[in-house]
């Protein structure tokens, strides 16, 4: 497949990620950092069209609240049993296609949501990836915390769901070859471990973050855009020796590729939606040059 474009060390393909993975050379990717469609339904063509016209559908288009404009959020409580079964199947198929492309010891970091993360985790584990815990992104959002709809006054002391204050990022690793130590794997493939935050501080599994700021959102129009400060922190950790290829198979507007560029890594993205590919064409270099206001705090 020919890439849609290249921007420095970043390459983006406009393709179905499973088809792309099936055609990709084996053992050619050293890490994965990706923010996939959590429930799959929210990024089908019908729901994306509703999102882009502000009509909602599975996307909750909330009004302004306390002077803040609330971003659209997918309502995973609306998922049917069929939707959940499709989610299980998709992530199992995706992980199965991904495994041969990874070198042994390659880490896979997948953004999730507390309502569906357990199903994604089971599907990926069943496909043969080794669960290595998860990264907790501490972030205060406007999700949850609402009183019952159309009954705010009647149930003034009630919260239907907790106000979201964290986001799970599932961490997996391709198993090492038999009888191979992490040290041996690092020498052979450059993978199997995580890069320390500093000589004195290991990479921790809790990271204090913040919602993506408006000036950053203006560089890349995607409803699930994560801040560069967070992405650069986790992308940097995925290549323990600082070299290799980072893959984002659900690249969106290219934020992971931009983060990889910012920390000096080679990266590849795959994105199915041609509109997001065109956004990424300009967004990748713009986000890579974005000056973060503060680095997130990695708690060792």
TrEMBL record:
<dbReference type="Pfam" id="PF01555">
    <property type="entry name" value="N6_N4_Mtase"/>
</dbReference>
<keyword id="KW-0808">Transferase</keyword>
<dbReference type="InterPro" id="IPR002052">
    <property type="entry name" value="DNA_methylase_N6_adenine_CS"/>
</dbReference>
<keyword id="KW-0489">Methyltransferase</keyword>
<dbReference type="InterPro" id="IPR001091">
    <property type="entry name" value="RM_Methyltransferase"/>
</dbReference>
<dbReference type="GO" id="GO:0032259">
    <property type="term" value="P:methylation"/>
</dbReference>
<feature type="domain" description="DNA methylase N-4/N-6">
    <location>
        <begin position="29"/>
        <end position="281"/>
    </location>
</feature>
<dbReference type="GO" id="GO:0009007">
    <property type="term" value="F:site-specific DNA-methyltransferase (adenine-specific) activity"/>
</dbReference>
<dbReference type="InterPro" id="IPR029063">
    <property type="entry name" value="SAM-dependent_MTases_sf"/>
</dbReference>
<feature type="region of interest" description="Disordered">
    <location>
        <begin position="202"/>
        <end position="223"/>
    </location>
</feature>
<protein>
    <recommendedName>
        <fullName>Methyltransferase</fullName>
        <ecNumber>2.1.1.-</ecNumber>
    </recommendedName>
</protein>
<comment type="similarity">
    <text>Belongs to the N(4)/N(6)-methyltransferase family.</text>
</comment>
<dbReference type="InterPro" id="IPR002941">
    <property type="entry name" value="DNA_methylase_N4/N6"/>
</dbReference>
């Amino acid at each position: 497949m020919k890439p849609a474009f290249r921007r420095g060390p970043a390459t983006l393909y406009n393709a179905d990620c499973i088809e792309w993975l099936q055609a990709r050379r084996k053992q050619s990717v050293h890490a994965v950092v990706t923010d996939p469609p959590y429930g799959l339904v929210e990024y089908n063509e019908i729901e994306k069209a509703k999102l882009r016209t502000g009509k909602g559908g599975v996307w909750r288009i909330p009004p302004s609240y306390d002077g803040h404009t609330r971003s659209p959020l997918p309502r995973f409580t609306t998922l049917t049993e069929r939707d959940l079964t499709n989610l299980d199947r998709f992530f199992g198929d995706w992980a199965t296609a991904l495994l041969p492309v990874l070198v042994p010891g390659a880490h896979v970091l997948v953004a999730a949501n507390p309502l569906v993360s357990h199903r994604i985790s089971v599907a990926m584990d069943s496909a043969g990836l080794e669960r290595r815990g998860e990264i907790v992104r501490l972030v205060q959002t406007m999700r949850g915390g609402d009183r019952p709809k159309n009954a705010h006054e009647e149930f003034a002391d009630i919260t239907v769901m907790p106000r979201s204050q964290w986001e799970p990022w599932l961490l997996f690793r391709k198993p090492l070859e038999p009888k191979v130590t992490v040290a041996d794997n690092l020498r052979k493939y450059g993978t199997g471990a995580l890069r320390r935050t500093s000589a004195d501080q290991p990479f921790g599994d809790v990271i204090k973050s913040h919602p993506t700021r408006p000036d950053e959102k203006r560089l890349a129009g995607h409803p699930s855009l994560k801040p560069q400060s967070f992405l650069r922190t986790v992308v940097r950790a995925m290549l323990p020796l600082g070299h290799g290829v980072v893959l984002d198979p659900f690249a969106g507007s290219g934020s992971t590729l931009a983060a990889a560029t910012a920390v000096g890594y080679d990266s590849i993205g795959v994105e199915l939606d041609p509109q997001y590919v065109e956004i990424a064409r300009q967004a990748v270099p713009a986000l890579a040059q974005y000056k973060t206001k503060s680095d997130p705090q990695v708690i060792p």
